[in-house]
Hints:
By secondary structure, this protein is mainly α. The chain has helices at 7-30, 35-58, 65-79, 81-99, 105-126.
Amino acid sequence: MTAKYSQETISEIENYIQRASHLHTNFVKLREREPIKAAEYLWGAINSLYEALSLRERDEKLGEHSKVRIFAKELSLREGKEFFDLFKDAETLHAIFFHGFLSGPGLWDRLESAEKLYDKLHTLLATPKFV
């Protein structure tokens, strides 16, 4: 990480990355037994990675869902439309947790998309252009 970040910002970025890893671990543990509950852990992990990326790129916390959505859309303009498509699937998982309106193949397809997004965001955090 370059000197342009304060120690506090660096610490916050690291905390978001650690939180994402912890939430993703919980997701993996519950995926087969309780997929809807697991999906909410994955959503939390994805949000934590967006927070870390926003801090690295802008030194700005997102905090609100609407700001995460805007940042996800902006990121997709640079990284490709697929990023926002994957975000929308992950966002649907968040709604499923509260409303329980999806099961079966649709749920599993969205879980797969959200996992792909998690991996892509994790990879972005490891690339030099964000450091």
